[in-house]
Amino acid sequence: MQRRDFIKSVAAAGIVGTVGRHAHTAETGWRQFEITYRINIKDSDADTKVRLWVPVPQDALDYQRVLDLSWRSPVATHVLWEAASRAPIVSAIWIDPKIAREIEITAQVATRDRSGFYPDASHDELAEYLKPTASSPSDGIVLAKAREIVGARTAPLDKARAIYDWIVDNTFRRAETRGCGFGNIAFMLESADLGGKCADINSLFVGLARAVGLPARDFFGIRVADSKLTKSLGKSGDITKAQHCRAEVYIDTRGWFPVDPADVRKVVLEENLPVDSDKVRALRERLFGNWEMNWVGFNYARDFKLPGQQDGPIGFLMYPYAETTNGSKDSLDPEGFAYTITSTEIG
What we know:
Blueprint: H1 3-8, E1 16-20, E2 31-40, E3 50-55, E4 64-72, E5 77-82, E6 87-94, E7 102-111, E8 114-115, H2 123-128, H3 140-150, H4 156-170, E9 172-173, H5 185-191, E10 195-196, H6 198-211, E11 216-223, E12 237-238, E13 243-251, E14 255-259, H7 261-270, H8 278-286, E15 290-291, E16 295-299, E17 321-324, E18 327-328, H9 334-337, E19 339-345
Parallel strand pairs: 9-10
Antiparallel strand pairs: 1-4, 2-7, 2-19, 3-6, 3-17, 4-7, 5-6, 8-15, 11-13, 11-16, 12-19, 13-14, 17-18
C-alpha cells in the first residue's frame, strides 16, 4: 500500500496511536530524522472547546519517506488526509475542560538530497498545479508581469529560469515579516513591495510560473538539521520557528524540478552579502535544480479550509493551527499557543 493511501485509511483514537511503515533507506545518501511536536494549548476560558490541526510529513517523490508517525494524547486523535490540498494532518479535539489539552506527536522521516528532474506526474495533477488560488491569481498583473519576464522564450526550462532570476534580482527578504509571510502575490506586484519571506518569495515564483503555463507548487515544511552549505540555511534541535516553504516547477517531458529563490535572498540578508558575490552566485546556480534535504516537507496546500474548521480559509498549513470558542489561536506565537517542535538526526 502506498503511503498516501495508507494515511488516507487511518483514523486512530485513544491515548496512544501510531502509523508505521519502514522505507528502504539503505542506499547511499539517506538521512533519518525524528521530529517531535509538544503542544499544550492555553486558553483563558477553561470551559472552551478546543480543536487542533497539525501538519505532518508525507512521502515525496524519491527523496522523502515517512518511516513512522505516532502520538500520545488524552483525547481522540485522528490522522486525516485532506485530499483537495494534499495535506496529511493530525487532528484532535478537547470538549471536557477537565482533560489536559496536551498532545505529543513524533514523526520519523528519511530524506536524501534532491537534484534534477523527477518524471512522475499525472495529467490531473499537472492541471491542479496550473489553477489560480485566492492569494495567487494567474491573470491581471500576475499574468502581465509573467509575460514581461519570459519575453519571447518558449522552452519551459528557459521560462522557469527567467522567472527564477527575476525573483532573485528583484525581491528581498524582510527580517521583520512575521512567520514566513502571507504569499499574496497580487498585492506584492500591485504595491511594488517585493519584500517578505519564503511564503512570499517562493509563492511569487509559483504564481508567475503558472501564469505562463508551467505547473508549479509550493511545498510547505520545516528545517530539521544544520546546513552543509551555509549557516543561515539550517536549523537543528529546537526547530519551533524553522518553518520554510520551497517551490517546484514541472518541465514538460522532463519532470518536477526543485527551486528555492527565497533561500538565495535569505543568505543575502542574513550573511550580509551582495547578490553578485561569488558565494551568492554559486548558491543561485545550486538552488535552481537542487534542494539540500536538511528539510522535511508537509504539504502543497494553498488557500483552503481545514476539515471541521470554523474560521478560514487559511493561506497555508505550515504551523500548528487551533480554534477555540474564543476564536483561532495565533500560530505564529508558539509561547502563547503553546507548542515546541524539536528535531534529532537518528540515522
